[in-house]
Specification:
two-stranded antiparallel sheet; elongated; 8 helices; single chain
């Protein structure tokens, strides 16, 4: 998300090799810790079986490592990326502002679903709402792409051409 927003807001120069390496260091480490959780129980210390009308489900207890990963890595990166995108949108023409707001809303939907899961405030104990809220995310992104033409290359190309021209340009409007 952070890498996307840095590129989308024309701040890719901040993605140095060192910063990219540091960003990509944590997820594989966390994946390895998840894969070896049975040995250390730092991610999910407990598994509680729950029987509901819809069937059997395991409710995972959240270990300190899962909380550290969420609060010190994932959520700060989501927040920084969203703040960069909203800041850029605020100073952009209305079309880009709408695109950015919908993209941020699309990013926030799974974030909120994940918070509900981690805080155990959903009506279905142990059900991770994050994958379900990705569907809402898809709706926001689809509206941004199809209604407001997010990721359309034409405005970016036009801006690049006009920024590179050193001479004055007259534009005649059509009636």
């Amino acid at each position: 998300w952070l890498m996307f927003t840095l590129r989308y807001t024309h701040r890719s120069a901040q993605l140095t090799r060192l910063r990219l390496a540091l960003l990509w260091l944590v997820p594989p480490l966390m994946l390895a810790l998840v894969a070896t959780n049975e040995w250390h129980r730092l991610v999910w210390p407990t598994f509680t079986p729950v029987f509901t009308a819809s069937g059997f489900r395991l409710v995972y207890g959240h270990g300190w490592l899962l909380w550290a990963y969420a609060l010190l890595y994932v959520y700060p990166l989501l927040f920084i990326g969203s703040a960069l995108l909203m800041r850029s949108a605020w100073s952009s023409p209305r079309l880009y502002r709408r695109q950015a707001v919908l993209i941020v809303a699309g990013a926030l939907a799974p974030w909120i679903g994940n918070l509900f899961y981690l805080l155990d405030v959903n009506p279905w104990p142990g059900l991770d709402l994050t994958p379900l809220t990705l569907a809402a995310s898809g709706v926001f992104l689809a509206v941004s792409v199809f209604r407001y033409h997010a990721f359309d290359i034409t405005p970016i190309a036009r801006e690049a051409v006009f920024n590179s021209i050193g001479d004055a340009v007259l534009v005649r409007g059509e009636r």
